[in-house]
Amino acid sequence: MSRYSALRLLWEGIRGQTGWSPAWRFPELRSRYDVVIIGGGGHGLATAYYLAKVHGVRNIAVLERGWLGGGNTGRNTTVIRSNYYYPESARLYDFSLRLYEGLARELNYNVMFSQRGMYIVAHSQHQLESVRRWVGAMQLNGIDTGMVTTAEIKRRIPILDTSAAARFPVCGGFVQKRAGTARHDAVAWGYARAADRLGVDIIQNCEVRGFIKNANGLVTGVDTSRGPVAADKVAMAVAGHSSVLARMAGLELPVTSHALQAFVTEPLKPVLDTVMLSLATGIYLSQSDKGGLVIGGELDRYPSYAQRGNMPTIRNVLGAVAEQMPSLGRVRLARQWAGIVDIVPDSSPILGETPVPGLYVNCGWGTGGFKAIPAGGYLLAHHLATGRPHDLAAPFSLARFSTGALIDEAAASGIAH
Ligand SMILES: Cc1cc2nc3c(=O)[nH]c(=O)nc-3n(C[C@H](O)[C@H](O)[C@H](O)COP(=O)(O)OP(=O)(O)OC[C@H]3O[C@@H](n4cnc5c(N)ncnc54)[C@H](O)[C@@H]3O)c2cc1C
Q1: Would the pTM count as exceeding 0.85?
Q2: Does the beta carbon of 171 sit less than 6 angstroms from any atom of ligand 1?
């Protein structure tokens, strides 16, 4: 499979696009692998890639019940940032952001990472006080953030109503300039192509329906819709389906599944060249390269596995957008959908081994795991290959729910991550 490059694009343009080959193979499922990874989203594919690339493991399968990136990886609003409160989170997410900064080159795939900055806007003196505490903590953790005035926010986000008469008056906020967006499915496809080149078997339309254990309770494989597969180690990266799958292995995870919705408007001329999040309403938006505004907001309140989302949330999110950006009031919505996100009590991920021997997990990213795909994959690969958690991943073990060493980012910052 040849490299992608500008020269190659030119050459294929000249000869009528006849020289391209499929970005990855469609191999037959084999009966045995060293490592089986369940879930062909960003985290599963990145885990396979780093296992092969960094640790030289070649006999790997990624089993995906649908199509690559068809879960949350292809459904999210693509915000990437590392503006987290606790040192453990700041280290983890900034590691991920640094991997994103070199990802297109690493994978030889244009993931369209655009560091257009992210503004978090406060609407009361109380919120501004928490923002100052948050910024102070982040600066101590070495994250590039700084407070901004209302005037600076208005300059960067002219469509935001910052007038004194606004229903949500703006009192200032903070910015992370290295934050931004990337093309979500390109991240999945880029990792898939690069992992495939290293010999990873990516099997789509292959649902895992159970776990195979030996007499000692060690997981020795999985039962799939295409038959049994033996494996030395099995890792799950199935986001909103983590508790369902873990239960099949006899493990209760502290994960509940909720729909999180995304909205895209009809294409507009450029109106927003950064990412904005409002602390009053929880809405956030950016503008895609095609011109649509990509909008996100609160979770649907009750647990669900329906990838649609409900009307009250649609009304709340879009009502808040129209209220805070009145000039968008007549813009039409082009698309809306939901993904099923994996919510844990402290809004932080779970990474590493489980009490079920031979079974590893990557989940709990909830509303914020797209930005963490490179780190989640890298760190789980490290654990699978070395048998020990990476330093960055150690605080995010499942054990914290028994020891009480929770890392409650939502409580610290006031937004659910
Ligand atoms: C609307 C929305 C907006 C979001 N916005 C952001 C954002 O702006 N920034 C951010 O950082 N994060 C965001 N997120 C969260 C982010 O999308 C997820 O945390 C991340 O994509 C999770 O990746 P993953 O690979 O773990 O899961 P997924 O991409 O969901 O992949 C899991 C895969 O497992 C497969 N699977 C499930 N069960 C089985 C089985 N039994 N057998 C085989 N395969 C199985 C699924 O089909 C799926 O493809 C958002 C999420 C949503 C839904």
Answers
A1: yes
A2: no
